[in-house]
Amino acid sequence: MYKHWHLFWFFRKVSLMKLMEYRTDFYFWMTVSVMWTTFNFFFFSLLINLNGTIGGWSRWELYALLGVFTMLDAFTWSFMAQNMWSYTGQIFSGKLSGVLVKPIDAQFAMMATETSYNNIPRFLIGLAAVAWSLRQLGITPDSISIILFITTFFFALLFIYSLWFTVATLAFWVEKLDNINEIVPAFRRMWQVPRTVYIGLSSTLFTVVLPLGLVSSLPTEILLHQLSGAWLSYFIVFSCLTFLVSRVFFKYSVKKYSSVGG
Amino acid sequence: MAKYIALLRYMVIRSLQFRSELVIWTILDAIPFLVLFLIWIGMYQDQDTIRGYTLHQTINYYLLVILIGAISDIHFEEWRSDEIRNGKIDFFLIRPLSYIHEILWKDIGGKVTYIAMFLPIFLLFLGITASLNLGTFAFPLSRLVLFLPLLILAYLINFMIGLWIVLGTFWLEGSHGLQHFKWVTITLLSGSMLPLAFMPSWMSQIVHSLPLKYLYAVPIGVVQGTYQFGAVDAVYLSATVIGMFLFSRWLWSKAVYQYASVGG
Question: Engineered SS bond to B217: which of A136, B95, B133, B213, CB 3.0-4.6 Å?
Fold first, then answer.
């Protein structure tokens, strides 16, 4: 465990050194991420101006949700995106052997290598939006809410990661599909809105069968003191199961892998 | 003309290799709209109209956004910019075929394949929304006659904006940021994000004053019968396309002198 911990922080240090090397690139992509974040808030502010609520969520409740979504998004792009691209790239090019022969868990090695720091402002904007919205709603979260929020936030990330990794692992089974890594990011729109938006069949699909609609909503509901214990338990169990599936599927799929020589 | 047809044919065949990817793109592109549809269904639950739009009209609006986007959007900026940055366009500069024409005809070729993949999925999507009584198309012939040229002009406007980003690579180290800037600007100011009636008046005025409205808002308004396309529009749109074309030519003439590549 110590080895993994040490390596994790070593990789972060290397990423930071890379950042120092390409500082303009950092500022540039940071600006782009801030631009999209602003756009998201602006778009939903236009929508809520029309009706006053979206899925029964008021303006400030929705902004809190968008804040949580933005924080999750910052983590997703910082810790997952580059590693997933590198993972599928190595499968398609036959260079995965380099990772598989290392004396460390392959899934850990592939998913811990790269970090992007461009999304730090995005995370801070999300955090500020959550804090400001709670203030507007007159809610002061207690320490239990904060601990529960952090726990649920972690499981939301675990769910996103496991889902993305499982989809990326399909790369072992298809000839060549460059946009395989676009599938999970495209589904981000599903957790950008309150779970109450999903009604009827869509509710069953996106909150039970594949609970994408719960990803941002549940952590937000904890902060808004609208926690549903049943949904929270379901989501935590589902996230753990998805993680297990991702590991089992990877170990099964890797047997299909054939590398290039040289 | 034969050489352009050959290019188009080559690109159709080449892009057919990536048909699975094209199908995935089509489905992924529809996801934001699926979420939007659900949001709108929720918003219309306690009212029949919002700013004069019924749920049916609103869904119909976004179906048209999907259709127009599939036909007129372009996505060549990133790889064409890389091509220039890596000094790989020498080949095009010494051939009796303009690089710009090369970009245009190959893009059209790719689009032909994409549309062939997109249409069955879109029709399925349309069938589902129609069966749920959410929205479908009513295309009177008179409106279709105007809609089709508008689609072609929307494509040309998109193409030239994309071309400017590509040509920007001759001066700028990276033009990927310009691409993101383009996406945000077009989404905000073309009417692809929201119908004009749903925008605040200050924003609606900005959209009305800019030619980006001809990408989505005007063609959709023409089909839905909410926009009267008059002589002023015809003049403004023609002047925009001609102006953009002349600027593109001028930009290319300057850009090519910035180019340097390695030998070998």
Answer: B213
